[in-house]
Automatic annotation (TrEMBL):
It comes from the Bacteria. It holds the Pfam family BPD_transp_1. The lineage of its organism: Bacteria, Bacillati, Actinomycetota, Actinomycetes, Streptosporangiales. Keywords: Cell membrane, Membrane, Transmembrane, Transmembrane helix, Transport. This is ABC transporter permease. Its main location: membrane. It is found in: Cell membrane.
Amino acid sequence: MTLVATRPEAAVRRRRRLRPGPRITLGFLVGPSLLLALWSVASVTGLLDPRFLSAPWTVVTTAAELIESGRLQDNLLASVRRVLLGLAFGIPLGTLLALVSGLSRWGEAVIDGPVQIKRAVPALALMPLLILWLGIGEGMKVTVIALGVFVPIYVHTHNGLRSIDSRYVELAETVGLGRGAFVRKVVLPGALPGFLLGMRFAVTTAWLYLVVAELINSTTGIGYMMDLARTYGQTDVILVGIVLYGLLGLFSDAGVRLVERRALSWRRTLAG
C-alpha cells in the first residue's frame, strides 16, 4: 500500500520538474546585467582598448555630461516622438489590413502578396524613394518607422485570425451572430495573442527603423547625436546612444510582455 501511495506523488514531482520554474522578478534584466559585468571586467583587465570601446563608467560619465548640457533629453524626446508617431500610424494600418485579409479570401489575395513583398524589402532599399517622394523632413522619418511597424502587426495578427478554432466560427453561425458581433466576440479575442506578439516585434522594430531614419540628414535625435559623435571620434557618445537604443527596446518589449501577461491571464501555458 505504501508503494502504491507514493507512485502518484513521485509522478507529480517529475511533472513539476518539467516546468521552467517560478517566475524570476525582473528576470529580463539578468542577461543585460551579465553583459555589463563582462564589459566591466574586460575594461578593468585591459582586454578592451578604451580608444575603441569605452569603459562602462566612462559611458555613464558621458551620459551625465550630456544630461547636464540638455543634449541627451532634447535628442531623446525627438526620437521618442518619431517612434510614437510611427507606432500610431503603423499599428492601426497593420491591424486593419490583417482583419480584411484574415476575414476575406479576396482580401487575402489582394493584400497578403504586397505585404510579403514589403516584408522582404529592407528599409535601406526604400530610403531613396521615400526621400524623393517625401523629402528629408519628419514625414519621411515617421513613414519609415510606420512601414517597419505595420508588417509584424499584420503578420502575427493575420496568423492569429487564421488560427482561431473553427468550432467557434461554427458556433457563431449556429447562434446567428452578425458580422459585427462575430468580429467583437470571436475574431478580436481570438486574434489578441497574435496581435500582442506582433506588438512585441513592432516596438523593437520601431527603434531599429528609427536608427535608419535618423542617420540620414537629421538635426535632432539619438541617431543624429551618434552620427555627429562619429565625425569627431567620440566613441563614448556613440556608446551612450547604443546603450540608450538597447534600453529603450528592452523596456518597450518588457512593457508589452506585461500587458500580454495580464490580458491573456486566462491562458494556461508553459510560461505560467
